[in-house]
Amino acid sequence: MALSLISAAFVLTATAVPAVATPQATLKAKFRPEKLGASTAVSIAFHLHSDPGEAVPTISNFALRLPRGIGFGASELGLATCSESSLLSSGVRGCPQESLMGTGSALVQVPFSTQIVRERARVFIFMARPVAEQTTTLFYFDGRRPVIAPLVLQSQIVTPEGSFNSILNTPVQAIPSAPDGPEGRMVALRSTIGPSTLRYFRQVNHRRVAYRPEGLSLPNRCPRGGFRFAASFRFRDGSQTHAYTSIPCPRQRKPER
Known about the structure:
Shape: globular
Largest sheet: 13 strands, antiparallel
Number of domains: 1
Structural class: mainly beta
Number of helices: 1
């Protein structure tokens, strides 16, 4: 897949920086395709909302709980690995194509003295080497100074003992902005993990051939109530909030007579 980086854009809002309060969160999820027992890509989007006159606080951790039976174990995603140092020194080009697992975008706000700068950055998700025997991914934010610099967040996929749900746990470090400027605050993230956005390559008869890898696998049966997702957000001021969503069970085609 050709990786054309989208230049980050920002908008200056000439309003006073509002007070900070615990925000509300919305969560959306989608499978592509929605077919039981098949390989799929999963798209996740969250948005943090604050009341008028209030700013979104600085997020410190984001944890996403995947539905039962949805995991990375049987997929072909991340056949190679990339490192944080490679991303920060060379960007996306420093990683093997087969380490890319998905793409997306993020919205970051930087509250300066009398205005809020908003920047959208392209996001790339890579497989990394395991940490403490846990599957580990890297979220690379292709920021552009003078607003925010490129950023890498490490995320681990854990399965709590006695649980059938996998949790994607992502600590959010300080988001650097302009020199001596305030920290950036992530307020929205949209990402797709899976084959709909990916192209890998393999050698076939001495030729390099592109193919679409197998993605996350949907179980053969849909759980009651559909596929349920949950997200929790923790903030630097000690507050937290949660969001929930579900994907209805796919409609099954009736067999032709």
